[in-house]
Design a protein that fits this description.
By secondary structure, this protein is of the alpha/beta class. The protein has five helices and seven strands, in the order E-H-E-H-E-H-E-E-H-E-E-H. Helix 4 (about 105-115) packs across helix 5 (about 150-175). The radius of gyration is 15 Å and the shape is globular.
Amino acid sequence: MRIAALISGSGTTLQNLIDRGFDIVGVVASRPGIAGIARAENAGIPVVVASADQAFDVLTRWQPDLVCLCGWLKLLTIPEAYAGRVLNIHPSLLPAFGGPGMYGRRVHEAVLACGAKTSGCTVHLADNTYDTGPILVQKSVPVLENDTPETLAVRVFAAECEAYPEAIRMMEKMVL
């Protein structure tokens, strides 16, 4: 399956997919100078910096079967041609702790502030809103009494590293 990835930051989710041998045909970065660009370039993957409005025009060059949002932080309008073929990963058990402004450390802080005993990650089909598309995979992790946003993030990311590949394999069966 030909995958294109969209990134906005360090590229750790992208690196997970690279390390697991997925065929990543191109990366769209939302801004220049982010660490994820170097990760893609080091793996020999072409990178284009583009806005959310330009992203799908760029993707057309690569003809991906699947688009994976790997820490992409901009709201997208998904063209009909890509409907049902865009995945997102979120660092909580959606629908909890999702929506505009809820990403990264902010999610983990909110989980800890409310006293949740469980957190985790969700892979879902992206739609034209934040974190509301159909859920494909969820993995849970415990919230420990002495957790900080950083320690919780480590466990959630470990779950993400398993959940995203699982969801991609599910999509391979549906798309190809």
